[in-house]
Amino acid sequence: MLLCSTLLLAVGFGALSGVLGGVITDPTLVSNHTYDYIIVGGGLTGLTVAGRLTENPNIQVLVIEAGNDDRTNPVVYDIYRYGDAFGTKLDWSYPADQGRSILAGKTLGGSSSINGAAWTRGLKQQYDSWLQLLDPADANSGWDWNGMFSYMKKAESFTPPNSGQLAKGANSISSYHGFTGPVHAAFPLYGLSSKLMYGGPQEPAFASVMVKFGLVKYKDLNGGTPNCVSFTPDSNGRAFVVNQPRGLGSPVILRVAYLSPVESQRKGWTTLVGQQVTKILFNPSTALPRVATGVQFGTSSGKRFTALARKEVILAAGAIGSPKVLQLSGIGDAAALSSLGIQSVVNLPTVGKNLQEQTLSALGAGGTNFNVGGSGPSDVIAYPNLYQLFGSQASAMVNHITQSISAWASSQAKSALSASALQTIFGIQANLIIQDNAPVAELFQVTNYPDKLGTIIWPLLPFSRGTVQITSSNPFVPPKTTVNYFSVDFDLSTQIAAARMVRRSFQTSPLSGLSTGETVPGFSTVPDDANHGSDANWTKWIKSQFSSVAHPIATCAMMSRSLGGVVDARLRVYDTQNVRVVDASIMPLQISAHLSSTLYGIAEKAADIIKSGL
Ligand SMILES: Cc1cc2nc3c(=O)[nH]c(=O)nc-3n(C[C@H](O)[C@H](O)[C@H](O)COP(=O)(O)OP(=O)(O)OC[C@H]3O[C@@H](n4cnc5c(N)ncnc54)[C@H](O)[C@@H]3O)c2cc1C
Ligand SMILES: *[C@@H]1O[C@H](CO)[C@@H](O)[C@H](O)[C@H]1NC(C)=O
Ligand SMILES: *[C@@H]1O[C@H](CO)[C@@H](O)[C@H](O)[C@H]1NC(C)=O
């Protein structure tokens, strides 16, 4: 297929011109060649930026991806194989604290090639808060909801639900969506008379119970208003392999949406797979800002190569991969790097700090003999705010947050710049929760996991802060990743409150009519009582079984330097002239959503910033 012609092309012209095009595996074809831009990581954001930059045929872009091109592997393109990539060579499984690991795609497309495809966006005010964390001089930089909404829509090609899907509960508001972008989003299963979208009673029953619990049911949550219960679409066409939308050809191309459809036309876009970037190379002049000249790359067993960048080096290696590459390159805490024998290029101690990751638990109940009415994926998500989640305890929780901000900031300061900066950031986060009703937990109704009736939960806005820090100058040693799960009590309280809400949901009509009783964790593990389980019993169960959600962010946060930012509003690493970060690591705070739609928007905006030469 595409790969064969690409290789021929590469062999034919590559060595002469330095411009190859296509997806290649031979590092000698790009070694010592010069490109305008080198992008580190061919994941969600890296391919998005490359796709936009190479719209100009005079621009030459090299993407270097550590994983392989697995687009023809059903584990990548078939949504019903979700989970099968975990723990395989397609997954970094970055080791973290408390025995957990953080899943992340190590394959062309990155985590977007192994993700769950849920397509949601956060609360309007959460994007607006990004501006508050930047310098006042950046007030017009467009890092707010209005700016981000148009870029999120630019990435999207939405198919509204058809009559069959509408009958099953799907809905949409067309002004909340884009219709011409590369990333297809729709309800399952596009074009098949909605044959496979769940049509049984379980999803509507869950939504009805959430309405009884005080949530509003919205037609569509993708317009900056996630505080509701709603049917939500899926991205990437992962769910759509049977029917190919828009005549794009093979289902395989749907997964890597910015590359596959244009792959054979973009002669200026070369993607080298199976090679890991080991460091960024800098001009030896030590004057600030430092100037990157290219990157070094290789494999753990093979030799090292160099590729040169005429204009910029752009990091898109993900929230664990990007701080790692910066630290290996001498950008980070100079003292910590010098102890590893790495010479400081920019002393920027907050590289790898401010890590924010969430914690997942799955609850289940046996089901009566009802027909689930399809094969999914599951569609209904509830996003309660603090008042809805904590009910009669909410005002006590508001007081607790307000009174604890300063103590929490001190306790987490080692994972950020300083307690005073963190106090400012926590103040903004608290305000979003208390004033703006930002959803604090996700309750995702899942059919047949972990039992016939299932709901997976996670706190959306943890105050715990962690770190990503290399412990070796060997780039093939994973960095030490410490999330400090539940190190702020609010995070655990939120997880417990969400678990209680799910337990109550199984006991509330109409869901109770479909349930034969809670099985996970079940009353023998967490005895039921007037409180729907004691704090002690829930704590014990949650800590014994939670997993990492795989939504790490903020390790190269876009914030003012005084707050501990790593990149400015132009996504440029402080004190460098031409190193940018465009991936999940620049998000300064979590949002009440799955991350992918927001990250496509960030990368779309990044591409425009880079094109404009700012
Ligand atoms: C299991 C899972 C389920 C998810 N489910 C959803 C969901 O349902 N909905 C949703 O919206 N979001 C979901 N997400 C989140 C979303 O997919 C990620 O947040 C997003 O893909 C991150 O984009 P990124 O560009 O920052 O990183 P990635 O997409 O992970 O890309 C980083 C790329 O860089 C490569 N790389 C790393 N280091 C190097 C190096 N040194 N040299 C070369 N290459 C390197 C990696 O191999 C990878 O390809 C999920 C994520 C995971 C892991
Ligand atoms: C790249 O250049 C270096 C230095 O000139 C040289 O030693 C090396 O062999 C070259 N590598 C390739 C693959 O051409
Ligand atoms: C529940 O917690 C109580 C103390 O609050 C404890 O005595 C009991 O053993 C716990 N039950 C389980 C099943 O862990």
Task: Write up this protein.
The chain has 15 helices and 24 strands. It has 614 residues and is α/β, with parallel strands linked by helices. The protein has two domains: 4-73 and 254-354 and 555-612, FAD/NAD(P)-binding domain (3-Layer(bba) Sandwich); 160-250 and 356-548, Glucose Oxidase, domain 3 (2-Layer Sandwich), CATH 3.30.560. Residues 1-17 and 237-253 have low confidence and may be disordered. Keywords: FAD, Flavoprotein, Oxidoreductase, Signal.
Quick description:
The protein has helices at residues 2-17, 44-53, 74-77, 124-132, 145-154, 163-167, 202-212, 318-328, 334-338, 386-390, 394-412, 419-434, 489-506, 535-545, 596-611; strands spanning 22-24, 34-40, 61-65, 94-95, 101-102, 156-158, 183-186, 229-231, 234-235, 269-273, 276-282, 292-298, 305-315, 331-332, 346-347, 359-367, 380-382, 441-447, 453-459, 467-469, 480-482, 515-520, 547-548, 579-581.
Structural class: alpha/beta
What's the architecture of the largest domain in CATH terms?
Answer: 2-Layer Sandwich
- What is the distance, rounded to the nearest whole angstrom, between the alpha carbons of the first and last residues? 39 Å
Write out the CATH superfamily name of the largest domain. Answer: Glucose Oxidase, domain 3
| Share in helix | 25-40%
Q: Total helix count?
A: 15
Count of folded domains = 2
Strand content: 15-25%
Low-pLDDT segments: 1-17, 237-253
Largest sheet: number of strands, sense, barrel closure: 8 strands, mixed
* The first-level CATH class name of the largest domain: Alpha Beta
Annotation, overall tally of beta strands: 24
Q: What is bound: which ligands?
A: flavin-adenine dinucleotide, 2-acetamido-2-deoxy-beta-D-glucopyranose
